[in-house]
Amino acid sequence: MIQNTKLTDSQYRKLSKIVYDTSGVVLNEKKYRLLVARLSKRMRITRITNASDYIDRLGRDEVEFAEFIDATTTNHTFFFRENRHCEYLVKTLDAALPLRIWSAASSSGEEAYSIAIQLLENNFSFTINASDISDSMLDQGRAAVYHKDKVKNVPKFMLHAYFQKGKKDWVDHVRVKPEVRQLVAFQKFNLLSDTPSDIYDVIFCRNVMIYFDKRTRQKVVDRLCRALKPGGLFFVGMAEGLHGLDHDLVSVLPSGYRKKTGVL
Ligand SMILES: C[S@@+](CC[C@H](N)C(=O)[O-])C[C@H]1O[C@@H](n2cnc3c(N)ncnc32)[C@H](O)[C@@H]1O
C-alpha cells in the first residue's frame, strides 16, 4: 500500500495547501515523494486505503489533522549544532543578569539543552522556553532521552556532568539530568502565531526558515523580533540569514543579530 499511494494533481495541491496554510512549510513539486511517504505512513496508521478518504478525514478529525502536520515536519537536529551562536552568548553576555531565552522550532530539544548546559557551566541564571509545532517532538524534548549519536559533539566533561548514562536496553542512550531539564519548559507554538512584545533576551529560530517562502519568513521574523527585547540577540540557521527581509536587527556574526535599541 505504501509504495502504491498515488496522488492526483488536485489531491497533491490540497495537501500541500493544508501544510502551507497551517505551518508555512512549502511542499512544492520537488517534495512530492516526501509528502507521499509521510502521507502513506499516516494512511497505514489510520488504516485508510485511499488518499481521497484520508483528505476527507483531515477535514473532520482535529487529532489526525495535527498528526498529519506533525508528520510533514522535518525534525533533524543534534546537540551543539552550529554552536558558534551559543559560544557568542557565553562570551558577550553578563552572567550576573538573568536571561530569558526562547528556542523557537526546538524540535526534540537538543538545541535548548545545549544552550542550557553551556550557560550552567558558565554560571548564568536563565530560563529557556522551547517550542515547536510538532507534539511528538515536544514529547521527546520533555523525556530528554537521546541516542549517543546525538551527543557526539558534546565535550566529554559536559557529558559526564549533565547527562545520565542509560543502562541495559538503554545503554546506547543518555538522559539530560533533572537540574538541566527543570530550566527548559516545552510548549506547543506555531511560528505563524502572534507573539507578546519585548520579553526575550535571546531567541534562537534556526533551521526552520529554509522551509518557508519569503512571505512567511518575513511574518515570522516580524513576530519574533516583536518578542525580543531591544538589544536582544536573534539567531537563525547558518544556511538561512535574513537577506531581503525588513527588520530592526543589526548583524553581529554570521546568522546572528542584535535588535536595535532605538539609539542606533
Ligand atoms: C530542523 S528542525 C530545527 C531544530 C533546531 N532548531 C536546529 O536548528 O537544529 C525544524 C523544526 O521546525 C518545526 N516547525 C516547522 N514549522 C513550524 C511552525 N510553523 N511553527 C513551529 N515550528 C515549526 C518542525 O516541527 C521542526 O521540529
From TrEMBL:
Residues in CheR-type methyltransferase domain copies: 1-264
GO molecular function: protein-glutamate O-methyltransferase activity
Pfam families: CheR (PF01739), CheR_N (PF03705)
Catalytic activity of the protein: L-glutamyl-[protein] + S-adenosyl-L-methionine = [protein]-L-glutamate 5-O-methyl ester + S-adenosyl-L-homocysteine
GO biological process: methylation
EC code(s) of this entry: 2.1.1.80
Gene3D superfamilies: Chemotaxis receptor methyltransferase CheR, N-terminal domain, Vaccinia Virus protein VP39
Enzyme class: transferase
Alphabetic keyword roster: Methyltransferase, S-adenosyl-L-methionine, Transferase
Signal peptide: none
Transit peptide among keywords: no
Name under which the protein is recorded: protein-glutamate O-methyltransferase
